[in-house]
């Protein structure tokens, strides 16, 4: 499904501007490409001072992770069944579920590069 997107970016990072404004325990939704045409939505959040990037699609039953304040200041949440995911590694917390997809991300000069 995302083959067109991967082809578009060819393994090069995608620049996300202004990530320095994402505070500790906060997150922001980022849309890359057109979500109605093979685009992608990720959630970028900050935990323990580091930026993390997760695919917005929940690995449980197709819900979508939400942006904004992180649960307990450290977990991304899918509101469909309230599963929590650790943004640092994508692991579900306290439930048996596949990991959420994570992406490599690196901050630089107030922006970030993410590898899809
Ligand atoms: S679909 Fe996300 S928690 Fe169930």
Which key features would you list for this structure?
116 residues, mainly beta, Rieske Iron-sulfur Protein, 1 helix, binds FE2/S2 (inorganic) cluster
Description:
The structure is a single chain. The strands form 2 sheets. This protein has a 6-stranded antiparallel sheet with strand order 1-9-8-4-3-2, with no helix packed on it. The radius of gyration is 13 Å and the shape is globular. Helices cover 6% and strands 37% of the residues. It has 116 residues and is mainly beta. The chain has a single domain, classed as Rieske Iron-sulfur Protein, CATH 2.102.10.10. A hairpin with a 6-residue loop joins strand 6 and strand 7. The protein is built from 1 helix and 9 strands; from the N terminus they run αβββββββββ. The site of FE2/S2 (inorganic) cluster (FES) has 9 residues, from loops.
